[in-house]
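fold-stage: in
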Amino acid sequence: MGQGNSCNMQAAYVELISRSNTPVPPDEGSGRTLSASPGLDFDLIGVYTGDDESEVIAGTGGTFQGDQPNPSFNIVGPVGAVFFWRFATVGQGTRIEGDTWEITITRTSPSMM
């Protein structure tokens, strides 16, 4: 294996372990609180939520909720609504976008009580 392949594999591995993973609730799950295992060496978690999957993936249409130090986020929306969400791992001068997951909201948030 050439050195170029080794470097490419190492870069791919670093990106993989740096991505947020293990979503709670799992993909197509239900609830209101989103969380995921942060990637390696994270400083902040970028949060994206919305009802349009393509906008969440692209980070457009007001889906960016901000960078925060905690890998957990309470989503606001009506019970029964389907939302898409993802976290980005931010650290050491890089931003690694995570996978996009789906959630159906099942509980009323404290701000809606």
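fold-stage: in (second)
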Amino acid sequence: MKRISIVLVVALALLVAFFASLYLIASNSEPYEAATEFVSESPELQAQLGDIMKTRLAILGYTVSYEGPVGKADFEMLVEGEKTNGSVFVSLNRKAGKWNVSHASLALVDGRLFELAP
């Protein structure tokens, strides 16, 4: 019984370490930097949230895939603004090695949804 407990603890620790490393890789990636830049510079977001005070990647709120100069990425970003908070969903495409926002939307904490110009 003790051996099964140790195996379960080790397996859980490895699983947590695996997901934590994926989160760190995604939150330090080139497409995430492009998404963060979009969020911080969007006048539409500033109009809804106020000045952007903090952004962070939602846990398990990302997919990134690319090969060579093409790729796709999707992020859910938790954004704290001066007036209110919300979740920003950003999709990016990579062409010729450059990441560009293809779609973005905002979900405010009160449930209102807004499409954002890329």
